[in-house]
UniProtKB/TrEMBL annotation:
The keyword Transmembrane applies. This is Integral membrane protein. Keywords: Membrane, Transmembrane, Transmembrane helix. The chain crosses the membrane at residues 6-26, 33-53, 65-87. It comes from the Bacteria. It comes from Alcanivorax borkumensis (strain ATCC 700651 / DSM 11573 / NCIMB 13689 / SK2).
Length: 101
């Protein structure tokens, strides 16, 4: 349980600390980079989870790979939702008032 909760905390800390650091540095990402940044973070988190979780002594031997896979899936789900919400909020909307006159 502690490994799962710790993994989710790592995912959220990665997102919030990355955004806070960029704001502190005064860096404003353009639209495609704002969409890609959470997905690139998911790649990094997946590598870290698959590298470190299966060998931890906090889990029984048979739980290592399933827990690593679950955390990798959670990383993609959470980071994907963040990227998707940013896309949904900032997508170009067609103006319905424009006619062919």
């Amino acid at each position: 349980m502690a490994v799962g909760i710790g993994g989710v905390i790592i995912i959220w800390l990665g997102l919030t600390m990355g955004a806070a650091m960029l704001r502190w540095l005064g860096v404003a990402l353009h639209y495609p980079a704002r969409l890609a940044a959470p997905l690139l973070l998911a790649v990094l988190e997946t590598v870290l989870f698959l590298w470190f979780v299966p060998g931890t002594e906090l889990l029984p031997q048979s739980w290592g790979w399933p827990m690593a896979g679950g955390l990798a899936a959670a990383a993609w789900l959470i980071n994907g939702v963040v990227s998707g919400l940013d896309w949904h909020r900032n997508r170009p909307v067609k103006d319905a008032r424009v006619t062919d006159n």
